[in-house]
Write a sequence for this structure.
């Protein structure tokens, strides 16, 4: 047995992010103004995002420097280890080599912290005092709470009510880092009050929470908004995952045949796979497999079209795979994958057939997660269980195929153990949609 | 800034444990038979422990090989990182250098896993099919659940009822690794039923849970008992912490002026400090500071005497600092530090003035833990907050003293966030004892 864990020295941590946008064969379509349906004017986006991030959002540069201040905070836990899942391989009886990039080692327990630190930094640099955001599963809210504390910013988190109630430990974590947290919909915003009036018992959704956080940022001069996935600058910040993984594999003479990740908004998957895209375009035999929940089948059953990112239709229109912005997925336990849309970058790479997509039901994903925990010790987040399921599929389709699989272990599940309890108790169920429901969900897409 | 994190290559992981017993100037007193009060006959101990562990328990060898099968499992997460707490130093405004050994990276989240793996291995090797154990805070139960699964053993965990109720996520973790868990006192044992009859609402205690687990092991041929701290073989297994830390500090040209750890049963503190003891005996200027909760002041206010390890007086008599085996400490949130006794090795080193002792109240420890989390990202276990408090004391007694502090970050607090909530809500209190209560507690020590 060779080294199980591959570390990079801190001096080997990437000092530039990789921007995959210039590589996309079919190009990207610009975000549109929700009112005029014309390409969004940068000054309007500047009401909610700082210029440093907007420049990245639209950049055609392949490499963008990581500021020293951001690197310093990232070095608290990065470079993240690359781990050979040899015990999982043995449990599966496969000749495949399975590697995972362990993003669970970050302070908040997931890859989200990578972008949170960068976003807090650029806002701080431009004099912003406070950030508003939404969180579904709680991973992003925790990450931004940590990052804003590091840069001395205040932070308000609108947490989807069902998660707020189910995951009290996520609130405690955000409290520890000094953030303010309210369940969404909340009485603190116009849109929140409106929804509470018509649906007092609603479980909430990411789409609603985004509307609230956007309204918060738009209504205060000292505040801007931060989003934890979907957008191009978030994908950019997450490229550090793939850049490190590539170096780590190189250092042991390996190269992946397939790169796997779970897809909610797309950032962890794009983060690990985007630095490999040029290799594929240059003819390298490498596959990228994104997996999503069958209960929120954005990439596998959604439409590729312009749509809003939120329920209240306040965000710019993004060209992406979508199930319709008023689609409310069932309350599955992988809260981070319950989003109607998908990163425009990931969507374009799917359109251009660079990324393959697949889906899985939650019960088989928890089963995969338990097998992984027993073999490798670490308990994965429910979202990450999807990536593990896809990696296991790849490793077992032909047990004698010695292929090299790299997957993104996007986060640990230590704050999601109630979901495992529900699984063990037999109270979890799968959800599926008849085709007519998907057709109905996507029939209200905005007309451009 | 130099490297923040110091890693060792897997090939540099220690292949031998260090046994500090031969170094102890005043020597060790043997365990006594609870019935005859004569030195315990090994064949009687062999009813509950496998020979491989008993040999270690009484060994006079300084170095003992770590079996390859144990090393292989330890390599899932070891060597553990040594981290420079430079952000904490900055927050304190101290010139001291603070390093911590991060044992929170283990599968179950604490140092306990180091001994669990070794204990499961030696039991497996001798044909044992099942282990019984107790757990207080849940750290040890989780660790043994993971380790027994790795070696194909069954595991039954008697979990102190107050923790069982307060820490549902610990149960979920043990379930994930396939163990059976019951709240203690339980109806599954004679002693459990007896206590439930007289005290149906008892919160339980480690002393009771130990009695139950011992009874379980004694009543079944296929089962032996496992203890997560206190005993000499556990301290031996934990020496890997200090051995690694010493190598890591050496690799960056550092040597500690003071080594700090929290003391419950003593294993994490002894684990990090014991490999440095010979240096001190040879005249090196190094201090060892053990910190315990003021609400369970075994080392600072207890008696040095023979006492039982459990409430039912079933265990051998150990020569140690003790508050009396029927002392039930208040329900503070550092459950792992709520034990009436102390490792005989740590006790002897205190007697010989090699170890200094101190205590702290839980509120100041949580405050220290929060400060650490905000600075370094990682949320510490309530037990670990004590070590952090002592490290901060060392770093701030003279802010201009550039001393080097090494402390054991024994575990993360991600499954203890409810305790932080209690702290934030103002519902936590300190506990202290008037001297007459301590005198009363220790007046029933067995007469030898």
């Amino acid at each position: 047995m060779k080294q199980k864990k591959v570390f990079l020295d801190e001096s080997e941590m990437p000092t530039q992010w990789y921007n995959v946008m210039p590589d996309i064969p079919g190009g990207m379509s610009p975000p549109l103004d929700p009112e005029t349906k014309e390409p969004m004017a940068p000054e309007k986006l500047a009401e909610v995002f700082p210029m440093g991030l907007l420049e990245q959002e639209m950049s055609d540069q392949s490499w963008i420097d990581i500021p020293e201040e951001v690197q310093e905070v990232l070095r608290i836990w990065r470079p993240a280890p690359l781990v050979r899942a040899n015990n999982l391989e043995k449990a599966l009886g496969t000749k495949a080599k399975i590697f995972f990039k362990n993003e669970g080692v970050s302070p908040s327990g997931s890859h989200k912290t990578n972008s949170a630190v960068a976003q807090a930094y650029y806002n701080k640099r431009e004099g912003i005092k406070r950030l508003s955001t939404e969180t579904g599963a709680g991973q992003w809210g925790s990450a931004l709470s940590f990052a804003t504390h590091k840069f001395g910013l205040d932070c308000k988190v609108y947490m989807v009510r069902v998660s707020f109630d189910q995951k009290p430990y996520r609130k405690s974590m955000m409290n520890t880092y000094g953030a303010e947290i309210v369940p969404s919909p909340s009485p603190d915003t116009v849109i929140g009050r409106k929804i509470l009036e018509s649906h007092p018992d609603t479980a909430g959704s990411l789409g609603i929470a985004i509307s609230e956080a956007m309204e918060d940022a738009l209504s205060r001069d000292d505040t801007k908004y931060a989003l934890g996935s979907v957008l191009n600058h978030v994908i950019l910040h997450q490229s550090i995952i793939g850049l490190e993984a590539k170096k780590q594999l190189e250092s042991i003479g390996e190269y992946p045949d397939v790169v796997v990740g779970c897809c909610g908004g797309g950032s962890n998957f794009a983060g690990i796979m985007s630095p490999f895209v040029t290799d594929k375009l240059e003819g390298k035999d490498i596959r990228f497999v994104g997996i999503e929940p069958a209960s929120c089948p954005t990439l596998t059953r959604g439409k590729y079209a312009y749509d809003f990112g939120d329920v209240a239709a306040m965000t710019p229109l993004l060209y992406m795979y979508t199930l319709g912005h008023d689609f409310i997925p069932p309350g599955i336990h992988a809260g981070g994958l319950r989003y109607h849309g998908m990163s425009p970058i990931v969507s374009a790479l799917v359109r251009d057939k660079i990324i393959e997509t697949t889906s899985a039901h939650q019960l088989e994903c928890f089963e995969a997660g338990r097998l992984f925990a027993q073999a490798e010790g670490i308990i994965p987040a429910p979202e990450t269980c999807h990536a593990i399921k896809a990696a296991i599929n790849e490793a077992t389709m032909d047990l004698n195929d010695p292929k090299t699989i790299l997957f993104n272990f996007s986060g640990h599940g230590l704050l999601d153990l109630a979901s495992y309890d529900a699984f063990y108790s037999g109270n979890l169920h799968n959800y599926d949609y008849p085709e007519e429901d998907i057709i109905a969900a996507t029939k209200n897409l905005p007309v451009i």
